[in-house]
Structures are given as structure tokens and as C-alpha cells.
Amino acid sequence: MRGFSFRVIGTSLEIRLISTCINECSHQGDCEADVKRWVHQLRPMLDEIPAHIIATVLKPYGAWNEEELKDHEQNLVRLLWSAAGQAKDEGTRWVYMEA
Fold this sequence. Notes:
By secondary structure, the protein is α+β, with helices and mostly antiparallel strands. The protein has five helices and three strands. It has helices spanning 19-25, 32-41, 43-46, 51-58, 72-90, and strands at residues 3-9, 14-18, 94-98. Helix 1 (19-25) crosses helix 5 and helix 4 packs across helix 5 (72-90). It starts with a strand and ends with a strand.
């Protein structure tokens, strides 16, 4: 996989990620430090997604409660981790996340 793009439906945002990012954000073991580093690198693009949209995208996963979804910084990590994992698992070049 050379890279992939993910689009948050309900926004005009499309983020393209290289395969290094995908692999570093979705691997066995604890990925959090790697994902946080990539969130920092991608911050200008990620900041274009309103916080409430990210929380709305993450809510259907059912892995985080309402209180946890109020933490925008952690939601950025969750969003990138989820998108990278989905791209890696599905072997697709496009990931659509609905808001």
C-alpha cells in the first residue's frame, strides 16, 4: 500500500496519508506515541475538521463515552488511529468516515 486518503463525509476535507504513517499508526502493541507524533505533523490539516465533527465520527465506534469524546486532543489521536487501522485492515486507498 503506497498511501491512502480519508474523507470525512459532511465536510470538504480530504487527508492523504503515506504508507509510513499508516504503518506507524496501526501496528501491534501500543501505537499511541506514534499516532501522537503523526497528529503533530498533520495538525494543520486535522485542525480543519471541527471538534464536534470528529466526536460525531468517533461516537458510532462505541469505544468511548460522552465524557471521553469531549477531549479534542485525544479525539485527534483516535481519529488518525482509526483511519489508519481501517486503511491497513481493508487494504483500500480510500476511507470514508461519516459525520
